[in-house]
Amino acid sequence: MFRSKRSALIRRLWKCRAGCDNTEDGEAETEADLELKSTASSIFKRLKDRQLELLVQAVESKGGANSSCVLFPKGEVQLGRRTVYPQVVLCQLFRWPDLRHSFELKSLTFCCEHCKTLDDGDSTICCNPYHLSRLCGPESPPPPYSQLPMEPYKFEERNSTPESTETGASNTAFPSNFADLNDSHGASKQTHWCNVAYWELRSRVGRLYHVYQHSVNIFQELPHGDGLCLGLLHRDCRNESVERTRSKIGYGVTVSREADGVWAYNRSNFAVFVNSPTLDVPNSRTLTVWKVSPGYSIRIFDYEKSDMLRRTRDPELSEGPYDPNSVRISFVKGWGPCYSRQFVTSCPCWIEIIFNIPR
Q1: Backbone angles phi, psi at 332, to 5 degrees
Q2: What is the 3-state secondary structure (H, E, C) of 103-148?
Q3: For site-directed labelling of 186, which of 100, 105, 112, 293 has its Cα 20 to 30 A away?
C-alpha cells in the first residue's frame, strides 16, 4: 500500500476515536490520553495493510457493517509502564475510554465464526473493537434497574403460524441441542430453538419469527442486516410514543445461543431493558429488570439454571400466567415501580423471546 493511502487510513481512524469531539473543542490531552495514543499508533504500525482497512471499515460503521476480524499477533503491548492487550487498547480508543481489563470483554459469536476459518488463529488474536462487547450480567452485575411485583399479563394469544419477516440471508437449520452439524442422523431433527414476538404496548405486531440459526439480529435498520427487521412490520395508527421509540431502535440487539446459554448484545445507541426468569431471584414474587447499556452483553437465559428452577420452584408462586421459558426485552424504555411504566405492556416497543424447550 502506498504510504499516502496508509496515512489517510490512520487519519480516518483518529477521527473515529471516542471523545474525539472533546479534544477538537480545545480540551488538553491528559498524560493517559497521550500514552493511549502512542500505544495505538504502535499497534497501527504493526497491522498489515488489509487489517488496517478492515479496522477503518469497522469503526466508521460503528459495528453496522459485517466486518471481518482484525488480526494482530498474540501477546501484550506496552502502555506507559503497564503491559496491556491490543484489543483492550483499541476498545478504549474507539468505544469505552473507561475500560480497564480484558476480562470485562466478551467476544461476539460472529467473531468466533471468522476466526474458525483462519489458518493462523493460534498465533493471532482479533482486535476488532466491534467484535467485542462489555459484560453485563450476574457475574459482574450493575444494580438492577428495578424490581417489580409479578405482573398480571394480559397479552393477545400467541400466533404459532410459522412465518418470518426476513431480510438478506435466509435462516438455516440449527439443532435443538448442541449436536454436531455434520451429523446426518441429527440433521433430520433440526428445528427452531426460539420464537421472537414483537409488541407495541399491549398489541403484537406481525407473526412469530422462528429462529433456526444460532444467532439472530433484531433491528429497525441495519446496513446489510439479516434477521428480524422491525422496520418491515407495518401497523396502522401508531401513536407518537411508539414512533419515537422505533426511530431509536437502530441496530437493535443480537440474540445468540451459545454453549453457556443465550446472550443478548445491545447494538443500538440506547439502553435496552431485560427481564428473564433466570435473572430473577429464585422463588421470589418479584421480577427484576436489568438495564443493558449500548455495547454491553448480558446472558439472558441459562438452560441449566432454568431446568433447576423448574424442579425447585415453589408451587405457591405458580398462580397466574408464568412462562419459565420466556424473556422480555424493551427498547429504550424501562419499566418498574420507580418508573411511570409499571408493566412491560406499557413500553412502546418490546420483544418477547420464547425458547423452544421440550416440556
Answers
A1: 75, -45
A2: HHEEECHHHHHHHHCCCCCCCEEECCHHHEEEECCCCCCCCCCEEE
A3: 112
d(CA 272, CA 136) in angstroms, rounded, equals: 12
Q: SS3 of 7, please?
A: helix
3-state helix, strand, coil in the chain (%, to 5): 30, 25, 45
Q: Dmax over Cα atoms in the chain, in whole Å? A: 72
Q: Which three cell numbers stand for residue 197?
A: 414476538
Report how far residue 303's alpha carbon sits from residue 357's, in angstroms, rounded to the nearest whole number: 9
Radius of gyration for the alpha carbons in the chain, expressed in angstroms and rounded: 22
Measured between alpha carbons, how far apart are the two ends of the chain, in Å?
Answer: 59
- Cell numbers at 71, concatenated: 488480526
Q: Is 238 helix (H, G, I), strand (E, B) or coil?
A: coil
Cell numbers placing 263: 446472550
The larger pLDDT score, comparing residue 343 to residue 171, is at 343
Among 8-17, 110-119, 234-243, 245-254, the least confident range: 110-119
* Closest by CA position to 355, among listed 321, 325, 324, 323: 325
CA distance 198 to 246: 12
Q: Are 328 and 280 in contact (CB under 8 A)?
A: no
DSSP 49-97: HHHHHHHHHHHHHTT-S-PPP-EEESS-EEETTEEE-HHHHHHHHHT-T
pLDDT digits (tens, 9 = 90+) for 278-312: 988 777 767 789 999 999 999 999 999 988 888 87
Euclidean distance between CA atoms 117 and 92, whole angstroms: 27
Q: Which of 132, 90, 138 is closest to 111 using CA atoms?
A: 132
Residue whose C-alpha is closest to residue 40's, from 105, 102, 84: 84
Please give the torsion angle defined by the CA atoms of residues 216, 359, 163 and 197, in that order, rounded to the nearest 10 degrees: -60
**Residue 13 reports pLDDT greater than 50:** yes
Contact 154, 298 (CB under 8 A): no
* CB-neighbour burial class of residue 309 (10 A; exposed 0-12, middle 13-18, buried 19+): middle
Q: CB under 8 Å to 169, separation ≥6 — which residues?
A: 226
